[in-house]
Amino acid sequence: xxxxxxxxxLVGKSTLFNLLTGASVPTGPGSEPKVHRGSAPVPDxxxxxxxxxxxxxKLTPARIEFKDLPGLDPRHSEKEARIRFLExxxxxxxxxxxxxxxxxxxxPPYFGSLDPLKEFRELLAELWLADYxxxxxxLERLHAGKKKSRPEQELERHLLxxxxxxxxxxxxxxxxxxxxEEEAIFINYGFLTVKPxxxxxxxxxxxxxxxxxxxxxxxxxxxxxxxQLVEVAAQIEMEIAALPLEEQRLFMADLGLKExxxxxxxxxxxxxxxxxxxxxxxxxxxxxxxIKAGTTARRAAGKVHSDIERGFIRAEIFAYQDLExxxxxxxxxxxxxLRLEGKDYVVQxxxxxxxxxxx
Length: 359
Ligand SMILES: Nc1nc2c(ncn2[C@@H]2O[C@H](COP(=O)(O)OP(=O)(O)O)[C@@H](O)[C@H]2O)c(=O)[nH]1
Ligand SMILES: [Mg+2]
What we know:
This protein is an alpha/beta fold and 359 residues long. The mean pLDDT is 93. The longest helix is centred in the middle third of the chain and has 29 residues, at 116-144. It has three domains: 2-113 and 195-272, 3-Layer(aba) Sandwich (Rossmann fold); 128-189, no CATH class; 294-357, Ubiquitin-like (UB roll), CATH 3.10.20.30. The strands form three sheets. A six-stranded mixed beta sheet has the order 2-4-1-5-6-7, sandwiched between helices. Strands 3-9-8 form a three-stranded mixed beta sheet, sandwiched between helices. A three-stranded antiparallel beta sheet has the order 11-10-12. It contains 15 helices and twelve strands. Helix 4 (116-144) runs antiparallel to helix 5. The two termini are 30 Å apart. Bound molecules: guanosine-5'-diphosphate and magnesium ion. Guanosine-5'-diphosphate binds next to helix 1 and helix 9. Guanosine-5'-diphosphate (GDP) binds at residues 7, 9-15, 27-28, 31, 71, 102, 104, 107, 202, 204, 233-235.
């Protein structure tokens, strides 16, 4: 599962990628247009509580994979670069679109003046166009071979016409309602406007404090598209991250930041992939495990170790919330809130799990 970071050139994609993953890929004008991959920890305040309780030797947060993509330059990209870009987007499970709301003395904004909303629309238009062309091409092909059309082809044509209609209204294919039969065809196209989407607005200090031009419209547009919007200040957060821990807190308090924007971005990305966390706890390690919502206990056990999945007997489970409320595992047990669950139990976000298994 991979989240592609997309955006116009010089909006702070690589800076954000470095912040998220701890990498140090080149940033700024002239950095080579290359794809960079890396993984990022997903901060979770619940882990802090678990650490204070269990004092483990090791803490392992959940991680997600990011991919820093070369900027899409709608005015200058050659056809080849565009195709490569769209291929990378197609292979991403979710997209994080970065738009620029920061001033920079040496870097003029793409559209002359700062316009994050226009940047957002420009990117959406690229995705839209890719889907629209694909639908059109496929429909043409179906029509060309229309003479002896089989029922599957009829179904496909009907589906594509629905797609086309929706796209013509400038809507996204994520809004389609599909039957399971249609879904089975639809999924093979790899459409782009169905991908989970996060909008990261990269701010400067004045933006953090007083907002920025077009903020309300941008928020409205994001909401209308069902897109999570996260505001981050990449440059400032780079500077903060370089400080000793104690000073980091002071600096953030000065700016009125409760938690780093990057933490919220990682969390939003995690949610956009449909992931939830269960925890394993103990003196050795406190760990968050990412699973898709809907995963059963036996499958979840397989994340920890294939032996545990194979030899699964049962799972002893209590809820993080109960632990936080009652203060200790013993109290949770006393309150009768420790449960035994079988292999088909659907693991919930925040479940603290101990697997029983035989090898
Ligand atoms: N002032 C300011 N500069 C930034 C910010 N984010 C990135 N930059 C600068 O903008 C330039 C482009 O950043 P980069 O991450 O390479 O953008 P990319 O082309 O989208 O990957 C670099 O010189 C960064 O130092 C920010 O939030 N504020
Ligand atoms: Mg870059």
